[in-house]
Structure formats: C-alpha cells, structure tokens
Design goal:
CATH superfamily: P-loop containing nucleotide triphosphate hydrolases
Helix content: 25-40%
Number of strands: 10
Number of domains: 1
Shape: globular
Strand order of the largest sheet: 6-7-8-3-9-10
Strand content: 25-35%
Largest sheet: 6 strands, mixed
Order of helices and strands: EEEHEEHEHHHEHEHEE
CATH class: Alpha Beta
Amino acid sequence: MHTPEFQMNVIEVRELWKTIENAANRVEILRGISFGVPAGQFVAIMGASGSGKSTLLGLLAGLDTVTSGNIVLDGVDITNLKEDDLARLRGRKIGFVFQSYQLVPTLTAEENILLPAELSGYEGESRQRAKELLERVGLSNRAHHYPVQLSGGEQQRIALARAFITRPPILMADEPTGNLDSANGRHVLDLLLQLNREEKTTLVLVTHDGQLAEYADRIITLRDGRVLTDQVAERTVEA
C-alpha cells in the first residue's frame, strides 16, 4: 500500500463562510469551515447533494469569492487578491479538472492541453510536455482530434493532461468520474493517482462515490455546509 510522506500544509482554510442573499432570503452554503491539507496528500471531499462540497472546491480554486474567512494556498492568502493576481496564482499553483471536461471545442486535444501553459506564459518545454502527457494518458494518436471526435472518457483524460501541463503543486477535481462509465472512471482514477504520486501533487477531489474515496489518504465529509467528519481513510483497497 502506498504510504505518502506529507510536508507542511499547502492549503489552509480558516472559518470559511459562503452566504447567498437576495431580497427574499439568506442561504448559508458553507458555515465556518476550517481545515488544512499537507503537501502531497490526497483528500476526498464527500457529502450529499447540497452539502456545499462543490462550492467549497470552487472557493479553494479561486473561482468564487468567500463571504468571510480565509483561504491560504501555498503560503498566499487568496481571499482578497485582485482578479489579475488570482488568475496568475491559479496559472502557477492550481490544476482543475471539471466533471463536464470543459474542453475548448475549436482546439485540438494537444492545443487544449497546451492552453494553460500559453495563458501562464510557460514556454520552451511545454510542447514536449504536452506530448509526454498525451502518451501518459494513452492518447498520442488523438493529439490532432477535436473534442467532438473524442469519447467522454478520452475528453476527461485530455482534461486531466491539461490540468498537469504547468506542473501545479495542487490539483482539484470536481466529480471527475461522474459522467463516465465504470471502466473509463477507473482509468481516470488510476491516472489521477499516478500523477498525484509521481508529480508529488496535492490532490483535492470532490466525489459522491464512496468506492472512489477509499483510495484517498483522508476523507472530509460535509453536511449542511459544515464539516461532519474529517478522518484518515481506512483503505480497503490497494491504491
């Protein structure tokens, strides 16, 4: 069984609240959440629909703004960063895998993988890195295909390669196997685990799948916007 060696926290969440208000009502989506994630750890965030898990992931990635509290990523408090600074930090620090793939339809598979590197100003080895990642995810022969020419499983593997192109220290994934059949879901999970170990990337994954969560080092379960449990995973499977 894989036994990771963790370092200092690369993610710190402190008294995090997310509230949505309108003229009619006030909805508290997250209620005073606090936790830390050591570098290199694989954390699964679980909870029923409406528990706040996807909202939490979006806040951690800087895709949404907090109501109160703080989020510190790799030593940088992102809570009050200006959008330009936040975009630069995301480009350097975070890879993100969406459930719905979010590939650009007018770009080829290889061009989709290269996009974060180009937006972040990475040059030089990026094209070679993209070719290596295409090989890693088993899609070297699909490099010049467009998303519409790829299956769902292939699109998600391209999205996973795209998330790793800049070698981010943190990878976040929102239900990355949710739209896939069991065989493709297992393939994507295996790739996530391999890249998590070999690239020493901290992995934060939102899922409702208890079997998938068994591969994590730690499981945080949310209920009604609060942390219900936060525990080291008792693995019944070999990772």
